[in-house]
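pasting for the record
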Amino acid sequence: MVGGHFSFPESGLAQLLRGAITPYYNATLQATECIPAGMELFADFGSSWDGNLTENFYQDKIHRYDYDIADDLVESLIAFFDKFPNLSLDMQEDVMDFMLQKILRTATGANAKTINSLIPANPRKLKKVKEAGGTFMYQYQDMIKSNKWLHENGFCLNAIRQGPSTIPHAGRGAFAT
């Protein structure tokens, strides 16, 4: 999961989140890590919610594990450049180009293009990726909203209640209180 983390039992999770009809009445969610105010929340679908490494033939989908692999590569590149601090920017760019164009393709095969797209081409930005919290958070830095934004755009949901929909076969709904 990206953003705020929630845990669900593996069994039946797809039913819980696929539309309004579900056997999970009053399901309770639990945060598994600190969630900053204003961060968008996503549910954790378990270890295989987004397919596997062999399904992305056209390399047109980014999966959760692609971000994990990209984060590991960013960490490795930072560690390498920290070991050799006297490398010029041109040399760092050459090393990154070699690692991401040659080594990555050999190591990850079909997902190399997708993973490469998550890593900034400029070596000076690698530490910014790490500081942001990884490649996903670097790419979507606007995910965490400021308190000012929340006051201007947010609204309180305590004026609604949930319950069975009055529309036949619609599942659960939200009702004004």
